[in-house]
Amino acid sequence: MKMGRVFIIHGSFSKLEDTWIPWLRRKLQAEKIKVAVPNFPLAEGLSLYAWLEAFREYREMVDRDAVMVGHGLGSTFILRYLEHSDDQLSAAFLTAPFFGELGDNQVDKANKTFVEKEFDWKKIKRRCTKFYVYGSDDDPYVPLEQEEQISDCLDATLRILPGAGHMNKASGYTKFDDLFKDIKNFHK
């Protein structure tokens, strides 16, 4: 199976170097896989509509073989993107995804436009062939229950990673071998 371009979508409150994203980009590029890591507005410019607009320049690169990988709010963005577009994806890998409030006023205010409306799970499922959800049993931000519910709504493969925190540098995730292997194995 042909490997399409991989789009890696960052989260809302961390720099890329505070995640496994630069490592994953290098690993995929070493496999001759095309990778795009769009920059989305943070802080004052953080909104679903601003992110959809920022992704507009990448839309022509999205095809049926494309794969999207998200972290935190990046995963939630992927769900909204699938809901708002007619694009079809090969796979979506969602790490620490959420669909509702997280219980932190600052975070919930920043994420409001991404989660204020119900998700159209049927439409999202029609836009992507396969979903993978990665959650942790001790994520300080995203409750495992939200990840489990997303997995159920999407008939996704769910991986619960013990002690993985938010799967970022603070929890020891400057690389993410399981995710890399799953992306490669998806296209075998």
Give the overall pLDDT as a whole number.
94
Task: Note the quaternary state here.
Answer: single chain
Number of helices: 7
Strand order of the largest sheet: 2-1-3-4-5-6
Tell me roughly what share of residues is in helical segments.
25-40%
Summing up helix and strand content along with how strands pair, one would put the structural category as alpha/beta
- Terminal CA distance reads 6 Å
Which CATH class of the domain at 46-62 and 69-178 is shown? Alpha Beta
Tell me how many strands there are.
Answer: 6
Identify the overall geometry. globular
As residue ranges, the low-confidence spans are none
Kindly identify the CATH topology of the domain at 46-62 and 69-178.
Answer: Rossmann fold
Topology:
Elements: E1 6-9, H1 21-30, E2 35-36, H2 48-55, E3 67-71, H3 73-84, E4 89-95, H4 105-115, H5 121-126, E5 128-136, H6 144-154, E6 157-161, H7 177-186
Polypeptide structure, described:
The chain is α/β, with parallel strands linked by helices and 188 residues long. The chain has a domain at 46-62 and 69-178: 3-Layer(aba) Sandwich (Rossmann fold). Helices cover 36% and strands 17% of the residues. It is built from seven helices and six strands, in the order βαβαβαβααβαβα. The chain has helices spanning 21-30, 48-55, 73-84, 105-115, 121-126, 144-154, 177-186; strands at residues 6-9, 35-36, 67-71, 89-95, 128-136, 157-161. The longest helix is centred in the middle third of the chain and has 12 residues, at 73-84. The radius of gyration is 15 Å and the shape is globular. The model has no long low-confidence stretch (mean pLDDT 94).
